[in-house]
Amino acid sequence: MNIETKHDIGNTVYFIKTVSIPTIYQCNMCLGEGIIYRKDNSGIECPKCHGNKTYSDSGSIKEVVKKGIIDHIEINIDNKCNLEHKIEIDICYYIENDDIESEYVKYDEIYEDKLYDTYEEAEKHIKKICAGYTS
Ligand SMILES: [Zn+2]
Q1: If you measure from the C-alpha of residue 101 to the centroid of ligand 1, how many angstroms do you get, rounded to a whole number?
Q2: Contact 7, 93 (CB under 8 A)
Q3: CB contact at 8 A, 108 and 16
Q4: CA 28 to ligand 1 centroid distance, Å
Q5: CA pair distance 93, 20, nearest whole angstrom
Q6: Smallest Cα–Cα separation from 52: which of 79, 82, 25?
Q7: Which residues is 30 bridged to in the sheet?
Q8: Distance 56 CA to ligand 1 centre (A)
């Protein structure tokens, strides 16, 4: 049985990923100085931002277009729980993760219908989701 895949190993593809973007605030205790001054003008490290001058919270969830190269493809064939004996094929693409912060996850697993050839095509789908939230 030959299964046609829309994309091949080594292809560059685009997909949508949900990420959390931290919101960075200027520290309101030291007013962005990083140091708190005592009455005698000696400074101590700000206890709120620990001298970083800013602090961040978990921020907002946002969808972004990511670009990646297909490392390998996994094909799952499921013909068990289907009354019409129609064979269902799930094609899952493993895309190498270039995020430095998520070092534990080496690959993003994306199904074929969530994979796009161009940045513009992927971006269109983000807008659709966002429009659904606001209206
Ligand atoms: Zn501070």
Answers
A1: 25
A2: yes
A3: no
A4: 6
A5: 23
A6: 25
A7: none
A8: 12
| Tokens describing residue 107 | 């690959």
Tell me the per-residue pLDDT of 20-66, one tens digit each, with 9 for 90 and over: 888 899 999 999 999 999 999 899 999 999 999 998 887 888 889 99
Please, are residues 69 and 11 in contact by the beta-carbon 8 Å criterion? yes
The alpha carbon torsion through 128, 131, 132, 134 (nearest 10 deg) reads 160
| Cα–Cα distances in angstroms (integers) from residue 117 to residues 13, 14, 83, 89, 107, in the given order | 5, 6, 34, 21, 18
Helix (H, G, I), strand (E, B) or coil at 100: coil
Distance from Cα 61 to the centre of ligand 1, integer Å: 26
pLDDT digits (tens, 9 = 90+) for 8-27: 999 999 999 888 888 899 99
